Amino acid sequence: MGIKVYKPTTPGRRKSSVDDFSDVTKKNPEKSLLKIIKGQAGRNNSGKITVRHRGGGAKKYYRLVDFKRITRVDEEAVVTAIEYDPNRGARIALIEYTDGKKSYILAPAGLVVNDKVKSSFGKIEATTGTRMPMEHIPVGLFVYNIELTPKKGGQLVRGAGVAAQLLGIEGKYAQLRLPSGEIRSVLKVCMASIGTMSNPDHRLVRLGKAGRRRHLGWRPTVKGKNMNPCDHPHGGGEGHSPIGQKRGPQTIYGKTALGVKTRNKKKWSNKLIIKPRTKKRK
Predict the structure, then answer these.
(1) Start-end ranges of CATH 4.10.950.10 in the chain?
(2) Which of 15, 46, 168, 245 has the greatest number of beta carbons closer than 10 A?
(3) What average pLDDT does range 128-146 have in this prediction?
(4) CA pair distance 71, 56, nearest whole angstrom
(5) Mean pLDDT across the stretch 241-246?
């Protein structure tokens, strides 16, 4: 893992950097674990754009990653390869069971080829890549791919280089410190994998030019103040005009933007949040 910087031969190359893929051991994916992704371009079933600035991009297959790991419990599997996944920043690991069955899992940092991983509903040895209910995980360890609902599959802490820390078990809940700084209660019977997500340098990669952004499926973004009044609340005026007599920045739909909490105050899971997050979103 690392970042590769090229010589500044062009303006775009001067500001850009790429992942060196030194931890990837296999180039071609497992064909039996691929699925075709149909481009949606930010549109719903009626063809209307519901998510702006999406579309195009390089064609890619979806890797069928096993976020649950409950179908082959108490069976040991061997890591046969660490692969690149174009759909996420972290790496994925190709594992093979004793009967030849193969599967993809999220790869933690430090997991290498020929390592053995295991999942269980009981208490087993807490090694990197092991998956089990949080009530059996030693307090203080870092975990990832955490379930919110038992047997639903991991939903939390799946990004590159992130991890949550298990702070303790109290009653039927486990207390976790999430990467955002939020301390949250999750049912202790929910499963989690031990370790930290791989490829922590992913956040340091600089795209450098608009073309690389387009390859990722992002279309151009324009400031609201550069639009017409019929297209955005900030639009209109002569030249690069300010937003006018408004209390603050607004979205294209007229709602207050920047620094506004969007979480529903009446959401049922608010009672599970012990301490709100401390890190600001970028």
Answers:
(1) 222-282
(2) 15
(3) 94
(4) 36
(5) 87
What percent of the chain clears pLDDT 90, i.e. is strictly above it?
A: 80
CATH class of 222-282: few secondary structures
Q: If pLDDT is split at 50, 70 and 90, which confidence band does 1 have?
A: low
Q: What residues pair up with 61 in beta bridges, in sequence order? A: 36
pLDDT (0 to 100) of residue 247: 86
Architecture of the domain spanning 3-203: Beta Barrel (2.40)
The alpha-helical segments, DSSP class H, found in the chain are 11-15, 210-215
First to last CA, the chain: 23
Count Cα atoms within 13 angstroms, Cβ side, for 281. 6
Per-residue three-class SS string for 231-278: CCCCCCCCCCCCCCCCCCCECCCCCECCCCCCCCCCCHHHHHEEECCC
Give ∠ CA 49-52-55 in degrees, rounded to 5: 85
| pTM for this entry | 0.88
Dist CA 155 CA 149 (whole Å): 9
Quote the DSSP letter at residue 138.
P
- Confidence band (pLDDT; 50, 70, 90) for 60? very high
State the pairing for strand pair 154-156/77-83: unpaired
Where in the sequence of the chain do the CATH 2.40.50.140 domains occur?
3-203
What three-state secondary structure class fits 191? strand
What's the confidence (pLDDT) of residue 279?
Answer: 65
Query: Residue 192 CA to chain centroid, in angstroms?
Result: 15
Local structure of residue 47 (DSSP, 8 states): S
β-bridge pairing 116-117 and 77-83: antiparallel
Which tokens go with 85?
């996944």
